[in-house]
Amino acid sequence: MTSIIDPKWELFLKVAQLGSLTRAAASLDCLQSVLSRQIALLEAQCGNRLFHRTGRGVVLTDFGELVLARIRPLMVQAEQFEEDIRSVAGEPMGEVRVGLLPSTVRSVSGPLFQAVRDAHPRVKLHFTDGASAHLEEWLKQGRLDLSLLLREDNEDRPDEPCLSEVSLHLIGPPGDHITDRKHVRFASLQGLSLILPAAPHLLRARLDLLAREHAVQLSIAMEADSVLLQQELVAAGAGYAIVASTTAQADVAAGRLSSCPIVQPRLMRRIVLSSTPLRPSTLATREVARMLFGMRKLIASAQ
Known about the structure:
The chain is of the alpha/beta class.
């Protein structure tokens, strides 16, 4: 159904959120000139300036701040009204913006698209992939409705159902005297040449915190954010890496790597499903979330 709110207000919210016409245009996948024209039309309708143009982008005028405070709740109410109408019809419809972790794109995006297309043809999916920290920020900003996120802690959150949980392993070259063991204690990581993702990666933050708590000095030989890069560097003898147990299975089976679980403490990684706090859940969003929950085995295989 057509929105009861002028679509130009959605553009206004996006520009206000990002503080830049350039970034807003890129986010909305439209030309900056088109976006500028729509904002100018909105300002003409209001009879006042909404933004000050600066060298770094745009900032809200005092009038713009007043408008922003009023339009945000109106947009939420409008979305809820539209959802109420759809719910009466009993048919999920509308756009659902889904965030995927890079490791899950290949295993999840196609099956989810096909399942939604077959069961709910009036639901339109919009996929985005990115690092967990970025996806979580986009959820908080309302740019995504649902997203898969990584959790490197063991804390259960009732609003984030766990879709997959695996142990973290230390990986090394084949036949290595450390990674060929049954397990390795976290304290034994001291002195090893480690290949880890750079801060602020969630795993790096967790390892740094554990190192402080257990008085362990980690030796970072190299930083590499890509798990594939880490595995290739380990196979080349550059050091050790810490990855999900399922990630290295193929290379361990092929004899390119060896691995063992880290214990005391045991390190686990979870993939959870999270939703934006900025908008009420719609029937379409709930159906897509239900389908994602049903793909737990596919998601687990991607870790």
